[in-house]
């Protein structure tokens, strides 16, 4: 499933420039990124209302500071992710951060069920997830949970296509080594 | 100790559906409202700061204009002393 990055980065630039003058022009940016940011926050909060509040706060800050946004030829997506991450940090300042692992895809796959439960029970998965940095976690989220294409991820992460592919393949081989006793990746 | 409180959920959200919270018009309304409040409070803050500054300036100017009595001359002192009925 794709979130529909049919609009080019140039189109986004136009929206940003117009948003600096008129708040109404922010609507396409809001509509394009809302679900992605909401799901990112939902996965880190496990709370629908809280995720909606933080998402609203993220877009509020983005619109308030849109005049300061400098166009560098890349999408506004990473900037929104950055604001959302800061909002999360602020919220979880004195509390332990949450990370939700979804298993609906695995539930439907009989071959994956047994190794999956073994992974969860042995706490191996959480140990491996702990060893990843934020960018690596985000890469896996975008590719395998949000099911974005490499092009879309490259736009979102302000990287080029080959870098994203290389990063993901390296990450997969790293995971393969760490999880080889449990699953085939 | 792990970085996160990991939680396993069967399904967190319907990925195909749009979030029920997604509503730009409501967001824009709230944004404009908050923006107005922010601008008003910033204006009030500047106004209060200005009033305080002006107050300090006026006070300082008045303090400069208060004529201090010059110290009485030796003869004046004696005069005051002799006028005393006691």
Topology:
The complex is a heterodimer of chains A (185) and B (86).
Chain A: H1 9-19, H2 27-45, H3 48-64, H4 77-91, E1 97-102, H5 104-107, H6 110-122, H7 124-130, H8 134-145, H9 150-156, H10 161-179
Chain B: E1 4-9, H1 24-65, H2 74-83
Descriptors:
heterodimer, A: 185 residues, mainly alpha, Rna Polymerase Sigma Factor, Chain: A, globular, B: 86 residues
Description of the structure:
The complex is a heterodimer of chains A (185) and B (86). Chain A is mainly alpha-helical. Chain A contains ten helices and one strand. Chain A has helices spanning 9-19, 27-45, 48-64, 77-91, 104-107, 110-122, 124-130, 134-145, 150-156, 161-179, and one strand at residues 97-102. The longest helix of chain B has 42 residues, at 24-65. Helix content of chain B is 60%, strand content 7%. Chain B has a domain at 22-65. The model of chain B has no long low-confidence stretch (mean pLDDT 81). Chain B contains two helices and one strand, in the order βαα. Chains A and B meet through helix 2, helix 3, strand 1 and helix 7 of A and strand 1 and helix 1 of B. Strand 1 (97-102) of chain A pairs parallel with strand 1 of chain B, so a sheet runs across the interface.
How confident is the prediction overall: mean pLDDT of chain A? Answer: 84
**Global outline of chain B:** elongated
| Radius of gyration of chain A, in angstroms, nearest whole number | 18 Å
Major β-sheet profile of chain A: none
Count of discrete alpha- or pi-helical segments spanning 4 or more residues of chain A: 10
Return the structural class of chain B.
Answer: mainly alpha
- The Rg value of chain B, from CA coordinates, equals 36 Å
Total number of beta strands of chain A: 1
- Helices and strands of chain A, in order, run as HHHHEHHHHHH
The computed structural class of chain A is: mainly alpha
Based on Cα principal axes, name the global outline of chain A.
globular
Number of strands of chain B: 1
CATH architecture level-2 label of the domain at 1-100 in chain A: Orthogonal Bundle
Q: Counting H and I runs of at least 4 residues, what is the number of helices of chain B?
A: 2
CATH fold-type name of the domain at 1-100 in chain A: Rna Polymerase Sigma Factor, Chain: A
Looking at CATH, the homologous superfamily of the domain at 1-100 in chain A is RNA polymerase sigma factor, region 2, helix turn helix motif
């Amino acid at each position: 499933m794709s979130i529909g990055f049919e609009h080019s980065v140039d189109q986004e630039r136009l929206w940003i420039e117009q948003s600096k003058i008129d708040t109404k022009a922010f609507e396409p940016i809001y509509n394009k990124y809302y679900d992605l940011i909401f799901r990112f926050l939902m996965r880190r909060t496990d709370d629908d209302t809280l995720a909606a509040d933080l998402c609203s706060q993220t877009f509020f800050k983005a619109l308030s500071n849109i005049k300061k946004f400098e166009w560098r030829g890349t999408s506004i997506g990473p900037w929104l992710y950055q604001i959302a991450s800061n909002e999360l940090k602020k919220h979880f300042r004195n509390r332990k951060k949450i990370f939700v692992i979804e298993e609906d895809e695995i539930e439907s796959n009989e071959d994956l069920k047994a190794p999956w439960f073994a992974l969860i029970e042995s706490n191996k998965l959480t140990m491996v997830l702990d060893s990843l940095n934020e960018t690596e976690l985000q890469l896996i989220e975008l590719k395998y949970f949000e099911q974005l294409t490499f092009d879309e991820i490259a736009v979102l992460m302000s990287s080029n296509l080959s870098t994203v592919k290389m990063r993901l393949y390296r990450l997969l081989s790293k995971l393969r080594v760490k999880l080889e006793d449990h699953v085939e990746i | 100790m792990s970085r996160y409180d990991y939680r396993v959920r069967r399904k967190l959200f319907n990925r195909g559906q749009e979030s029920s919270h997604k509503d730009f018009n409501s967001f824009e309304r709230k944004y404009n409202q908050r923006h107005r409040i922010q601008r008003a409070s910033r204006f009030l803050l500047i106004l209060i700061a200005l009033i305080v500054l002006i107050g300090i300036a006026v006070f300082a100017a008045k303090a400069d204009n208060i004529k201090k009595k010059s110290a009485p001359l030796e003869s004046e002192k004696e005069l005051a002393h002799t006028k005393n009925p006691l």
